Amino acid sequence: MFANIFVIGLLNGCVYALLAAGFSLLFSVARIVNLAYTAYWMIAAYIYLGMTLLGLPSWLAAAVSIILTIAMSLVFQRLLDPVKGNPMSVMILTLAIGVILQKSVSFVQDSVQGVYFQIVPSLIKGSTHILGVAVTYQYLLSLFVVLVILAALGMFLTKTRFGIAIRATSQDKQVAGLVGINEKAVANIVTGIAVGVAAIAGVVVSPLYVLEPWMWLQHLLVLMAVVIFGGLGSLKGSMIAAFIIAFIEAGVVFLLPSVGFLRSAIVMFIMIVVLLVRPRGLFGAMVEEH
Amino acid sequence: MRIGNITDYLKKEIFPVPTRVMAFVGLAALVAFPLIMDQPHILRLMIMIFIFSIFAASWDLISAYTGQVVLGHALFFGVSAYTCAMLNTHFNMSPVMTIPIGAVVAVAAGLIAGFPALRLKGIYLGLTTMAMPVVLVAVIEYMRSYTGGEQGIIGIEQLATSRVHFYYIALLLMVVSIAVLMKITRSKIGLIFQAIRDDEIAARASGVNTTYYKLLSFSLSGLFAGLAGGLYAHFMRVIGPSVFEFSFSFEPIIWTIFGGGASIVGPVIGVFILLPVVEMLHVHLGDNATLIYYLILVIVVVFAPGGVLRLINRYTEKVCPECMTVNAFPRRQCRVCSAKLSAVNGE
Amino acid sequence: MLLKVENLSVYYDRALILDHINLQVGHGELVGLVGPNGAGKTTLLRAVSGMINVEKKDLKFSGSMVRTLGKISFQGESIDSMLSYEIARKGLIHCPERHRPFAGMSVLDNLMAGAFLCRDKREIKKRLDNVYSLFPRLKEREKQTSGTLSGGEQQMLAIGRSLMLKPILLCIDEPSLGLAPQVKRSVFENIREIQKQGISILLVEQDVRQSFALSDRNYILSSGRIAAEGSSAKLLEDETIRTSYLGL
Fold it and tell me: Which of B264, B221, B177, B270 is nearest to B80 (CA)?
């Protein structure tokens, strides 16, 4: 029982943490709430699936999927330029982009007959036992990849020249311009990185889930909860919140199976309470607007 | 004398401004509409348009005017719809009673939702309000003996016996609601709402009791959303947890952005254009309708960032720089103060 | 001439903030720009460093309008339509008002952000050593989060960050704002040293006495116009200027 909670909670926590890191990064630099973010995760999984069905080897399919997804996000990014000053319009546009991606997948799915489109093939096969719970190698691989990406992302942001520029831009766009940082270029790079991270997660983690085109919305809600819970713009906060929420979810599902369907609601309820006590989340960065 | 006043008003305030003429003609057309068109599915669509116009305008008030980001507006709509449905089916209360009670319950929901707004801002408030319907759906599914759970509530009484009858009730309520909302937004209260949106600290520093006005905005918004929800329940005669869905909260935002925010009329225009479009797309395209609908939405938002209303205004009106009176586009001189009007709008 | 501003006017919507400004800074000069609150000093710097051009784009969405007229050139090259990051790359560096450190980052990371344009590790080290020798306090606080520094230290950091770009012309906006008299004095001392390193400086100040003591030449800005210009001694001689603009 507890081993189950641990195994599921750990994986979901890692995935949430990764997505939250990307989402946070995107928000802190571009200052937009990109509701399409989890849709990129979904589309990457589907492109990967499609490519393998076309007969590409899985590593190539993975690469194609990640590159295509990033390219797509950069194109969509352009659409947001005319409405940048109005956060609500941006939000609606990104939501629309997410829905368009979802519906496009459904469209393709419906027009290609005779293919079962929900189970993504694993990159590696086989399983083992940990703490008495059956664990597939794909699960271990996913965990490993997610942790590596998180570590790499952390290193990139703190140690490299570009990482520092990204953090500077997220802190104060105008002053970043004064030290010669091209904010627009940074925004594009950050979009690429953030969506790339989501795409990798989509490719590596999706074999563990049953895939549905609409699932991005469900994940979006959890993701928003994680990011806000942890405090927008705080990577550390998102990480901690990701694991808290993942373990609460897993706990509810395994310990109170009769109310398992309430798990999102319980997470939301806890989040509302936390926000009322701490209006900027657990580690809310003091985001100053100039 | 009375008649004289009205014709005078028409001559001075309606006819000189093209958009007001359009609104006037449109309203007359709506009143006459059932006389020439009695196809039930068209009337049904029109009634939906009236109901959702109220719903959309109520979001405009709280978010676009007062700046309180509400991403869970379905909460107010749904709470009222469920209240009406439960009172009607469990206690046999007549719609004339349930709809006002539903609206009052929605006001209470507005106050509860407004409570976090006293501490939270922007996206933090947005997510909190977005989470509220999710929590409520869980409650509804948990208490399924009263709420019907996932199946929802069926057999709700119709508000009116005939569809044409309902049409006129809905039209009247919409016109009154929109008029009241416009009156509010153009009054001192509306000014304070906008002050809170633009700079809350400055508003407080100038002696505005922002707590009071924020809660007022939430309850007013809840009131009208609740009215729409009650009408919806008594028109559809069946409701389920879907009224609390994500998409139901985002629809009023879409209508408002499409039509043009912070104008009350904008969201109404949005509903009047988008609802028939959706209906048509569904008839012709079936499952792919949503895809096309969102594509259209993206294109319009990208090319007309200020919404359709701004676009219309830009090509039909000029605002006098001296006295802020609205003038028809071809005029060179303000019709009230005779100040010179520039050739291009906004310069 | 290093910096040449000709007939610069700036409008915010209908309000005229700067009215036909003419201003020049020569090589190696320290030019003071003084004037009361709201005279338009900061706006002038923002126009010179391209910040206004960035703001223009952002403001367009909210319906407000910023318009600039006139010419600005730096080292003979026209820069009046450039964005701030492009101008910074030319060597014209604006050190903003109220320090504005990247508050969540450490002192060292702030300085490294300043060195963003430089890829040469050895050169970065050289510049860093130079900043640390000017401001030993920053070295002590290297690992500290910059938002927790004192006002004086934040000002040192802001200047240090600008120096990491190796400026040709450094425009400093109100470095003494909100600082204790003693700290103020040391900041002005540092500015003099920076000039000695061969960097031209445009110093915007409200503290006329300190600024005049430092500068080679001055401009007095009042209600968006240049009211007077000249050396400190010459300006101080003039009774009307002294009483009506300088309050001395």
Answer: B221
